[in-house]
Fold this protein.
Amino acid sequence: MNYKKDFPIFTNQKDLVYLDSAATSQKPKQVIEAIKDFYENKNSNVHRGLYLLSENATKEYEESREAVSKFINASSEEIVFVKNATEGFNLLSNSIKSALSSDKDEIVLTEMEHHSNLVPWQIFAKKYNFKLRFIPITKNYELDYEIAKEIINEKTALVSFTYSSNVLGTINNTKTLTHLAKKVNAISIVDAAQSVAHLKVDVKEIDCDFLVFSSHKMFGPLGVGVVYGKKELFDKMDTFIVGGGMIDNVEFQSSSYKDSPKKFEAGTQDIAGVIAFKSAIEYINRIGFKGIKEYERKLLNYLLNRLNEIEGISIFNPGKDKSIALVSFNLKGIHPHDVAHILSEGGIAIRTGNHCCMPLIQKLMEFQLCEFSGVCRASLSIYNTFEDVDKLILGLNRVKEIFKNGS
Amino acid sequence: MDHEIYKEQILDLFRNPLNKGILENFTHEAIRRNPICGDEIKIQLKVEKEIIKDVKFSGIGCAISQASASLITEKIKRMNVEETLKLNKEEIFELLGIPISYMRLNCAILPLEVIQEALRKKC
């Protein structure tokens, strides 16, 4: 299997070993072509013009909504386009209050949330005097489901958690959590940003109320995110960003709004991005999740085995059967920044730092698993090869050599 | 691979930093976090009659930040406060003697910034 050839960046940057797909994935030529095609042949605003160009753009924009809904087994009126997953969580935290039961005042998150699924709820909690509670992680890098059973209780208004961790790779047991939420009549929100490119995400199977992800982590353009939500909940929610495009009738003193999902799409959207997003979905569908999973599993297994050969390495991962295709690690006594810097001189791109998960990194330090306030992360995608992994290992051995002997 | 920035001097200072530790009887202190990596650096100074008599730094950091902290603390010992407040990133680059990229700028200049913050606080 050679998917590298589908991605022009690897033709143009011959020495690039890209191991940062969890930050953003590379784009296949179909997606890049679709953006170019839109601006060269179709550029116009949607839902406004009564001329052919605008009608066609509107049709394609709505076809993308349809493609996204099928991709996660939803229906198109349950799909709202936003700028990115972060904006998706901001939409929810700003608008959801009116859809919550009035007798509950706790929100349950997990200790492995990205800041985008933490900070908005901190602000929500302060504003409405809610309490935030956290499902802890264990020393095996998994969620503690026994404690989850206790803290998701009749006080819980909503449970918002990540499908898979962008630092640990851990694939969480989403169904267990959504069912715990359902039992106490709490709303469930799933952050699928790290999952959508790696495994089949099915909102009916997960049985969640909301699901948030972004296009750019699944081979699509930057600037497009998705909020899936149950129609009856969307309808109960307040507006978020308001103005043109989302109104029904406007008078000088008051306005009424369109039904969801359009109620939440104010102003001109990234139309080219949304339309090209459909090409990314088609690209994934053509390969199929069976093929993606099998190949990524082999790569992840190889990466874990090769990393384990390195003396003095700490690995923060629950194991190949419990993780998406990424591994965080540290080399003993060598700061992650220095590791990434030296690797980058050999064309190897990894991410280091706190990965927008400062409380999680603090927890790893408390467990005495991590000596720095950051970790190195190598994340894989279908275009990566066994050779890429070999180059990373060679690079890491070189880092160790430099720090032992000097250059 | 050409490791322009990981020269022996930098690695040496990472392994054996200068002026690292805790200062008894300090007169000025500041602590700040590097927003990119989350590393914290603490600076303590002992100033007498506007002269920096002693200075120590503490905290975990990358090779660049540790080397920069070692070199700048060494440089400002016995300097007066006013001159120290005038130092800028150019002096740091000169001390380090290596090219500093945009992404590593914070690592390199953080120790000086924390020193100046400490001196401004109580002066």
Summary: The interface with chain A takes residues 1-3, 5-8, 11-12, 14, 36-40, 60-64, 104, 107 of chain B (CB under 8 Å). Chain B has one domain: 8-122. The beta strands of chain B are 28-33, 40-48, 51-58.
